[in-house]
Specification:
487 residues
């Protein structure tokens, strides 16, 4: 259908265009994608077997939808991607405030224009990207904002009384007729505003200051909500929940591989940064494991959620830390170091809600604990597990490393040191290379230095070594070193 040649209602009828509701439009276009085995929600990772099938079933059932989940679970992203299931172009009566369908007009303006001009009624076209409306629910939202109100200026200009429905100024929802309308954080919407949605969802009429207009709006509603909001800031009133066809629970990534895909896709990295900094896969695993640890940590209020944005911004900070160091040392390329993870602490502290005990510890200290916990979790996947209790005659694979620290009385890694000095320092501990050769022999040469640092941090977490943080870097000592030196 060549829309450029369709400028009047008569042209539209002759083209064979068939009008359909937005829910039918979404349903038919989704069915077509399913038949062609095309993804309807491309770029959403981890929901392939959980959320997306439920969302597709809701669309096929022509339901209004509530996406319920903690922060950072792609709820708004999913809602916005529903636009791709709309027809590319939609015809409306030209000049209509509420996107009137020429075949089924609902406003007085469109009805009178069609009655007057018939097949000569002018038609305009709306792109699908302009058929998405979004409103963040805040306590200051009013009925006038979303439904409409009497406009005294319009009444004066048109010389109409307030009893005439033409003096009404339509709010966001009527103006979004034949579109997708998203209300984010629905529980934050005051109860009386939620009540104003009842008739729109079910009966198809709106009430504005005594006017009861029969406006069968053609809408696809999508709501998002955080389950914690039900007890903290407000709730979804029961009759409104009853009118929402499907409630779909979202979730965080279930494994590291999915989490890494999301971070790699969403992180906003400079191309020069990516070329400059070599990032081992272990570093990416460690970064994601920090979020997994945070979702179970005793000092963090896990009910508020640990957003996927924590890993995304932490990854950006991680590379920036390495980039800054390389530039200060006049280097064009650098290896990511374990010490660079101290640069991600600002990305963690702003995204965790602490319980009382956590507040006493301090957010920076809790962030350090999360990094340590991530090391503890990943360490046994790469190297032999360190048991709390072991028999005296058991072979200790880490004995040679610990012995080196006992005899050398310490070892320092400075944050801003050059790559050459950094490698020289780690190469001075031959036992680390032997451990990697024995248990991770496939590790590439450029990844071995990060793995060596990882071993040191792992031995600290399992109480085989001591670690002391000072202004310029980190010092590692044997477990008894601090007692002997008096530090």
């Amino acid at each position: 259908m060549e829309k450029e040649n369709i400028k009047t209602f008569g042209d539209l009828k002759r083209s064979g265009y068939k009008s359909r509701s937005i829910k039918e439009e979404l349903r038919q276009n989704l069915l077509e994608k399913i038949r062609r085995n095309e993804p309807a929600f491309e770029g959403i990772h981890g929901y392939e077997h959980t959320v997306i099938p439920e969302l597709e079933r809701a669309i096929l059932s022509k339901h209004n939808i509530n996406l319920l989940g903690l922060r950072g679970q792609a709820k708004t992203r999913l809602a916005r991607m529903m636009v791709n299931l709309l027809d590319e172009w939609m015809p409306i009566v030209e000049g209509s405030e509420i996107n009137d369908d020429p075949f089924h007009p609902i406003s007085r303006f469109a009805k009178e224009l069609l009655k007057e001009k018939g097949d000569d009624t002018p038609i305009s076209w709306v792109h699908r990207n302009d058929r998405f409306f979004e409103k963040l629910a805040t306590p200051d939202v009013t009925v006038a904002d979303i439904i409409g109100d009497v406009d005294p200026i319009k009444a004066a200009n048109l010389k109409l009384s307030y009893a005439d429905d033409r003096v009404i100024h339509f709010g966001m929802i009527p103006r979004a007729n034949r579109s997708i309308f998203v209300i984010n954080e629905l529980p934050d919407l005051q109860a009386r505003i939620q009540v104003a949605l009842f008739n729109i969802l079910q009966e198809g009429d709106i009430q504005i200051r005594g006017f009861k207009l029969r406006l069968p709006l053609d809408m696809q509603f999508v709501f998002t909500a955080n389950p914690e909001d039900y007890t903290n800031r407000g709730s979804i009133v029961t009759p409104l929940k009853d009118r929402i066809g499907s409630q779909i629970l979202t979730h965080y990534p279930l494994n590291l591989e999915t989490a890494k895909k999301i971070t790699a896709q969403e992180a906003k990295l400079d191309e020069e940064q990516v070329k400059m900094v070599h990032v081992p896969d272990l570093a990416k695993d460690l970064l994601e494991q920090i979020s997994f640890e945070a979702r179970e940590h005793e000092y963090i209020d896990v009910r508020s959620g640990i957003s996927a944005r924590l890993s995304i911004t932490a990854y950006e900070n991680l590379l920036s830390t390495a980039e800054r160091r390389a530039l200060k040392n006049g280097e064009s390329q650098t290896l990511l170091r374990f010490g660079d993870f101290l640069g991600v602490i600002p990305s963690i502290t702003g995204k965790i809600e602490l319980v009382y005990e956590g507040e006493q510890e301090g957010s920076a200290e809790v962030a350090l604990q999360l990094i340590g916990d991530a090391v503890r979790t990943l360490f046994p996947r790469l190297f032999p597990k360190i048991e709390k209790l072991s028999k005296p005659d058991d072979e200790d694979p880490y004995a040679e490393v610990v012995e080196w620290f006992f005899s050398e009385n310490g070892f320092e890694l400075l944050d801003e040191t050059s790559d050459k000095e950094y490698k020289k320092a780690l190469d001075s501990i031959p036992a680390l290379e032997k451990l990697i050769d024995k248990y991770q022999p496939e590790t590439s040469k450029e990844d071995r230095y990060f793995l060596k640092e990882f071993i040191l941090w792992g031995l600290v977490e399992y109480k085989k070594l001591n670690k002391h943080r000072f202004a310029e870097g980190v010092q590692f000592k044997d477990i008894y070193g601090s007692y002997i030196s008096g530090l």
